[in-house]
TrEMBL record:
Belongs to the PspA/Vipp/IM30 family. It comes from the Bacteria. It holds the Pfam family PspA_IM30. Residues 111-159 form a coiled coil. Keywords: Coiled coil. PANTHER family: MEMBRANE-ASSOCIATED PROTEIN VIPP1, CHLOROPLASTIC, PHAGE SHOCK PROTEIN A. This is PspA/IM30 family protein. The lineage of its organism: Bacteria, Pseudomonadati, Nitrospinota/Tectimicrobiota group, Nitrospinota, Nitrospinia.
Length: 236
């Protein structure tokens, strides 16, 4: 497991440095790193399952030998009671009880030995469990970082493309075209005004008079002219 976590640390360092240099390659490196870590996690979980299996079997063996030791002690007591009651020859009862106690001692010692090994295996199992949890947490964190990295890569690519398009725009050419268009419009407006003035200069005097009168000047009415003519002739 120490080698496994050394690989994790080394990979983390290389991943961090690569992100600074380029944006596309770190994504591929991160994806590959996560795939490698998931393989390591699978291997670590298989090892953890094996160790847990050993712990379970060893725990059962400890209980089994403790139970045997207790049973042999009960048998020794029963043998002594039967010897005292006359059911068994006392000397035979003591011999069998001694054998039973000897086996009780053997089972008890075996239970103690297995108990020590059990404690060591449980410590190993607990340590493996911590390492597996840490590795799983690391993978989850890297996967979250990968999601962020992908989003940043897309944003960076879009920004880069947009900036490139903006840089390629010919602002100078567009402004020159607008200035040329403005000059053409002003030229057309001047020509139109000139043609208007020329048309006015070709108008006859009568036309000019009529135009002036029609623009607001008062035209004497026919009734006024008739009264003026009668007055001149001396008639009413």
């Amino acid at each position: 497991m120490s080698g496994l976590f050394s690989r994790i640390i080394n990979w983390s360092k290389s991943e961090a440095h690569s992100v600074v240099d380029q944006i596309e390659d770190p994504i591929k490196m991160t994806e590959q790193g996560i795939r490698d870590l998931k393989k390591d996690l699978t291997t670590a979980m298989q090892s953890l399952a094996q160790v847990k299996g050993i712990v379970i079997r060893m725990r059962n063996d400890v209980e089994k030998h403790k139970r045997l030791a207790g049973d042999y002690e009960k048998k020794a007591m029963a043998l002594l009671q039967q010897g005292q009651g006359g059911a068994i020859e006392p000397t035979e009862a003591e011999r069998l009880a001694t054998e039973s106690l000897s086996r009780k001692e053997t089972s008890g010692q075996e239970a103690l030995r297995l108990q020590k090994e059990l404690i060591a295996q449980e410590d190993m199992s607990n340590q493996l469990q911590k390492n597996v949890d840490k590795l799983r947490s690391t993978i989850q964190r890297y996967e979250n970082d990968l999601v962020t990295l992908r989003a940043r890569a897309k944003t960076a690519a879009a920004t880069k493309k947009l900036n490139a398009q903006i840089a390629q725009v010919d602002a100078g050419g567009t402004i020159a075209m607008l200035e040329k268009m403005r000059a053409k419009v002003e030229e057309d407006e001047s020509l139109s005004k000139a043609y208007g003035e020329m048309a006015d200069s070709n108008t006859s005097i009568d036309d000019q008079i009529n135009k002036a009168l029609s623009s607001g000047g008062a035209v004497p009415g026919a009734s006024d002219s008739l009264a003026e003519l009668k007055a001149k002739m001396g008639i009413s």
